[in-house]
Write a structure and sequence with these properties.
Length: 227
């Protein structure tokens, strides 16, 4: 370890990858390499960090705060709120949570002004549900409602567990119509049992014999009707 520190990693490590810089900061602090920590911070990693991955940015932000570099942490979050890509709902949710817990209302407002709900990609229902929850917690009710409407109509249904989480969150922030929009997509995706569990009991009886391709309840049938 002494030999490695003697090579001065703080002066040579690239600063583009925020999660790697955060890990190096923590390790240097763990071994008591205070001069190396100071040297690394003096290079201002917050200014050079890539903004491509918001979850990595959040990791560096925590690392900077743990190291006492509050000004750099604030500068990093200012950059992220103003310029970071918003297509990853999980990453946006992580950034919102970090800003909310730090009581950085101005940065939250700046991020919300970019309307992240309009930019996210719907490839992960769990991530969308997490973003819905964070939007609700920061009081962005209109954006949460808009995201809920888009998610109900467009979220992929290939992971029943993830879809169940999205359904729970829609019931928290969405309308009855948005819940119905999502659940009405279940049968076509092979999720008829989940469809029956999700709908009210009075509707469930109507679908005792299944559901037609047009969405209407199937007519009564028996074994003698099967070919």
């Amino acid at each position: 370890m002494a030999a490695l520190l003697a090579r001065d990693p703080a002066a040579h490590a690239p600063l583009g990858h925020p999660r790697a810089v955060a890990a190096l900061l923590r390790e240097l602090r763990e071994v008591g390499a205070r001069r190396q920590v100071a040297a690394l911070l003096a290079r201002d990693p917050a200014a050079d960090a890539s903004l491509d991955q918001l979850s990595d940015i959040a990791d560096l932000w925590r690392g900077l705060r743990e190291a006492g570099a509050e000004q750099q942490a604030v500068a990093l979050m200012e950059r992220a709120a103003a310029r970071a890509p918003l297509d990853n709902p999980h990453a946006v949710a992580v950034l919102l949570r970090e800003l909310r817990e730090a009581e950085a209302e101005g940065r939250v407002a700046e991020l919300l002004a970019r309307d992240p709900a309009a930019h996210v990609v719907f490839d992960n229902p769990t991530a969308v549900a997490t973003l819905l929850e964070e939007l609700r917690k920061v009081g962005a009710e209109e954006q949460a409602a808009a995201l809920a409407e888009r998610a109900a109509a467009r979220a992929p249904l290939d992971d029943p567990y993830a879809v169940a989480g999205l359904l729970r969150e829609l019931r928290e922030v969405g309308t009855d119509q948005q819940v119905t929009t999502l659940t009405d997509r279940f049968p076509a995706a092979g999720m008829f049992s989940q469809f029956l569990e999700a709908i009210p009991a009075d509707r469930r009886v109507r679908y005792r014999f299944g559901r037609n391709s047009d969405g209407r309840p199937a007519e009564r049938w028996g074994w003698e009707d099967l070919d």
